[in-house]
Write a structure and sequence with these properties.
The chain contains seven helices and no strands. Helix 3 (91-103) packs parallel to helix 5 (134-149). 45% of the residues lie in helices and 0% in strands.
Length: 195
């Protein structure tokens, strides 16, 4: 069959290759126990127990474990602030948590993983593509750019300052003796409780 499309220039017709198919009931396979079927088909929207189990165990074990720990951190944060973590997590809880992680200077990789874990836990609970992530991803992007602009790689530690150095030296065992004199410049404020 050749049809002219309204998009055709008229010079070259649009060719559509098609086949007309006629449904023939005599060729349809017979269903076993057809008389036991209801007259009206009902769309059952409940998974079988096997399907629920398979979904609950889907994905790699390491991913499920990592997502589980990130979701637990999120849930603990929510509970500490009187918020309900879900599932059916609210968008405001997700965005607020991501903002908290950013202000605590948690690495942007961990922030992204937390967002993915929260979405995954909601999906496993039957809330596909929930909560909306657009606002949380904006905060994540800002955290990623801030980290890049500071010259730090995703895994680099922040620059050491005197307070952190003092904490590290104070945490050393006494067996190191006076090594701190060689590490910390003279006149620097250091706790001398140990010496």
């Amino acid at each position: 069959m050749v049809y002219r499309s309204r998009h055709s220039t008229g010079l070259v017709p649009t060719v559509i290759d098609a086949e007309l198919v006629e449904e023939r009931l005599d060729l349809t396979p017979a269903l076993p126990d057809a008389e036991a079927l209801p007259d009206v088909a009902v769309d059952i929207k409940v998974l079988t127990e096997e399907a629920e189990e398979d979904l609950a165990n889907s994905g790699r074990q390491n991913t499920r474990t990592t997502y589980g720990s990130r979701y637990k951190a999120f849930a603990s944060w929510c509970v500490a602030r009187g918020r309900k973590p879900g599932p059916h997590t609210t968008e405001v809880n997700l965005v607020s948590y991501v903002s908290h992680l950013r202000r605590e200077q948690i690495g942007h990789d961990t922030i992204r993983l937390s967002i993915a874990a929260i979405v995954d836990m909601n999906a496993r609970a039957g809330h596909e593509k929930w909560p909306p992530t657009a606002k949380a991803l904006k905060i994540y992007a800002d955290a990623r750019h801030e980290r890049a602009e500071s010259g730090r790689s995703p895994r680099s530690a922040p620059p050491i300052d005197m307070d952190r150095l003092t904490q590290m030296v104070d945490g050393c065992p006494d067996t190191l003796g006076r090594l701190c004199d060689e590490v910390i410049p003279a006149g620097a404020p250091v706790s001398n409780d140990r010496w």
